[in-house]
Task: inverse folding
């Protein structure tokens, strides 16, 4: 008999042994026995995690103890239904693994030990996920997975209608679980609202949310009945509440709700009341904010004891058997947990980053092969070029979708998406609700299903509302799933300053720091109309071939520009480009030998104008357009910098955190030994009207800096 039982385990074992013999009740369904095995193993894993940590062998981990009633939710679904799970989903995971014939215990233990052989994140994080189990791994940013869940539900239906190859069955439903404190998060509220709105609008949305309500978020209690109050008032959402220590009711209610969602393709919420045992996570000392009496009072609601009661009452097992069962599982799990800590972890930085952003340049080039379209070869502005290339991409790749605020019927604030809805239909080109988090959520969900979404963020400043969906969700998926799940997408963002006639900082944003530091993200930023098409094609190809998450950043101020040096010269229009532009390839304009200007976007036409003024002063300049801000075209920059030995970085983003910082740092790191200077915009938000010119980098400043540099 184990003598080192934790009080919670002791209560469980004693409680099981004390269960009265069969009362002649109806036998429980076969699923109850599966749930018991999943629940017992999950609980044993949580105790083993503590035991390891006491020996300094484990890592910070969040347990599932008290939430194991979610095993019944798994058993109420098909194992192929896509699942995006709360971090307390040990019961769910193990039950689904058993349904699919997998040894889920090993998966979870390897995850806890950060072992490189762990099947989903490969030692990068302890997450619940597996491609064979249709479980998409989640990071533990609160509620950040809910918008993707909405997107997956949307995508199941849209893929069936458009006959796009989908990862999920046509009759699949999405399950997405989260905690009670998480319900209050802006991201959760956004997703619930979007769910309700889409359903209200008549769209099929087979989505079952599960709010696992243990009444507390770390140390802060959720007010009594708040979850009901918050959920019940919503339109379109059927909500059922059930107690986690009533397994028959949990199973039945979950089955009914799942069946209803599957049949009606309509969203619903299961409000599953749970308890939280063993504190919030690894280092959290629950006794600092809850009394011993409160903690012990929860023991009576143990979902394992409840399953035991069900099994015993129906005559399936005896309490003694179940207690012995638990103890033997416990011993076995401990042994295996210890063995897992001896498994190798990731060894090199290269191993860590390998799945982050794979690049198969040949595959991308083959997919992006730019060929002349049937249409004419007339000269286009940047806006027209983006519009034309979106049409090419929609034509060529049937799995592409274009959506965002005002993109469809209106055709975009600047007309960039004009005509696409009429040509490709409202199923592929559509207006969304006014919520950037949900726009990106739709991209995340459709991408992981098999689409290549091309969402638009209307203005760069609006991205910041929703940035976590890009940073914490889109960019991490391949990293935490070793590529088993991918969400290749191309996010079009209209941005930068210098707009004439439409001012203010919300329409003129030149801060790209939030994008540049996202590992693996591809950032394309065309300046010339003839680069716009090939670069968009490359992004779509990279999204398809490599699962790349691409941002395609369009300089609004150049959308309708036609001229460069003089009115009517038409030098800023061009025929569509026909040559493939690989990710990270710069383009050099002019071939001066005195000075290299490195720039991009609005900086390119400004620098080309300055180059002409410099030539009049006898300074012969070449101008490098970066075209890609991530990965930066470092080889190209270095070659062009060395060609003159004098390099000026012309950076329309801000002095602090601007893209030019990276260019300068890379040049220095790569041993560039020539003259080097940088000019950038001021550290300011961009004001309305003419005052904008006071903080944005000007051509005069560029010229003065160039002259100073050459005179050194
Ligand atoms: C965006 C964000 N803010 C804060 C946290 C820190 N955090 C992790 S878990 C948690 C509590 C969540 O409580 P609840 O949703 O009730 O789930 P529970 O842990 O109780 O199951 C918090 C605040 C986080 N992970 N992400």
Result:
């Amino acid at each position: 008999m184990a003598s080192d039982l934790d009080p919670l385990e002791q209560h469980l074992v004693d409680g099981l042994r004390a269960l009265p013999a069969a009362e002649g009740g109806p036998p429980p369904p076969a699923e109850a026995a599966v749930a018991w095995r999943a629940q017992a193993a999950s609980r044993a894993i949580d105790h083993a995690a503590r035991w390891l940590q006491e020996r300094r062998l484990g890592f910070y981990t969040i347990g599932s103890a008290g939430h194991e009633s979610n095993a019944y939710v798994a058993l109420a679904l098909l194992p192929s239904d896509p699942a995006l799970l709360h971090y307390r989903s040990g019961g769910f995971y193990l039950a689904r693994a058993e349904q699919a014939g997998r040894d889920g215990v090993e998966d979870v233990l390897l995850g806890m030990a950060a072992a490189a052989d762990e099947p989903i994140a490969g030692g990068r994080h302890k997450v619940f996920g597996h491609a064979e189990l249709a479980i998409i791994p989640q990071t533990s940013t609160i509620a950040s997975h809910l918008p993707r869940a909405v997107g997956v539900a949307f995508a199941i239906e849209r893929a069936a209608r458009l006959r796009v190859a989908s990862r999920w069955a046509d009759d699949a439903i999405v399950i997405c679980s989260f905690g009670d404190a998480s319900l209050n998060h802006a991201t959760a509220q956004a997703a619930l609202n979007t769910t309700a709105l889409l359903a209200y609008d008549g769209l099929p949305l087979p989505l079952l949310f599960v709010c696992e309500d243990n009444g507390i978020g770390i140390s802060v209690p959720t007010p009594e009945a708040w979850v009901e109050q918050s959920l019940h008032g919503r339109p379109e959402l059927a909500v059922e509440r059930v107690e986690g220590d009533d397994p028959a009711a949990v199973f039945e209610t979950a089955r009914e709700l799942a069946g209803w969602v599957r049949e009606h393709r309509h969203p619903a919420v299961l409000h599953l009341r749970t308890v939280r045992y063993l504190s919030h996570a690894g280092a959290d000392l629950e006794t600092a904010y809850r009394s011993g009496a409160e903690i012990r009072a929860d023991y009576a609601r143990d979902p394992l004891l409840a399953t035991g009661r069900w099994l015993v009452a129906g005559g399936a097992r005896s309490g003694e058997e179940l207690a012995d069962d638990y103890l033997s599982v416990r011993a076995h799990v401990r042994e295996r947990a210890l063995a897992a800590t001896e498994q190798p972890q990731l060894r090199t930085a290269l191993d860590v980053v390998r799945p982050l952003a794979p690049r198969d340049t040949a595959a991308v080039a083959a997919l992006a092969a730019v060929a002349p379209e049937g249409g004419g070869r007339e000269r286009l502005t940047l806006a027209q070029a983006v519009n034309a290339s979106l049409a090419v991409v929609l034509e060529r790749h049937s799995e592409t979708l274009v959506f965002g605020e005002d993109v469809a019927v209106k055709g975009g604030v600047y007309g960039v998406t004009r005509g696409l809805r009429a040509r490709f239909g409202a199923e592929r080109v559509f207006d969304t609700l006014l919520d950037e988090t949900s726009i990106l959520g739709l991209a995340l969900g459709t991408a992981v299903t098999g689409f290549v979404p091309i969402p638009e963020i209307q203005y760069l400043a609006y991205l910041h509302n929703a940035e976590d969906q890009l940073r914490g969700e889109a960019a991490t998926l391949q990293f935490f799933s070793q590529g088993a799940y991918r969400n290749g997408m191309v996010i079009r963002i209209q941005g930068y300053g210098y707009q004439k006639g439409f001012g203010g900082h919300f329409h003129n944003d030149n801060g790209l720091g939030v994008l540049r530091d996202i590992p693996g993200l591809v950032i394309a930023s065309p300046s010339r109309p003839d680069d716009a098409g090939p670069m968009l094609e490359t992004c779509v190809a990279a999204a398809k071939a490599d699962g790349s998450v691409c941002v395609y950043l369009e300089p609004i101020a150049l959308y309708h520009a036609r001229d460069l040096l003089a009115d009517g010269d038409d030098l800023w229009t061009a025929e569509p480009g026909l040559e493939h532009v690989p990710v990270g390839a710069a383009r050099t304009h002019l071939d001066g030998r005195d000075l290299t200007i490195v720039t991009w976007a609005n900086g390119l036409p400004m620098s080309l104008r300055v180059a002409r003024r410099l030539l009049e002063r006898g300074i012969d300049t070449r101008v490098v357009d970066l075209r890609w801000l991530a990965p930066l075209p470092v080889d190209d920059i270095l070659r062009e910098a060395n060609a003159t030995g004098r390099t000026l970085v012309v950076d329309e983003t801000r002095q602090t955190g601007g893209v030019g910082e990276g260019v300068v740092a890379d040049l220095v790191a790569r041993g560039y030994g020539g003259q080097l200077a940088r000019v950038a915009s001021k550290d300011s938000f961009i004001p309305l009207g003419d005052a904008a010119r006071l903080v944005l980098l000007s051509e005069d400043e560029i010229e003065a800096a160039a002259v100073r540099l050459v005179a050194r």
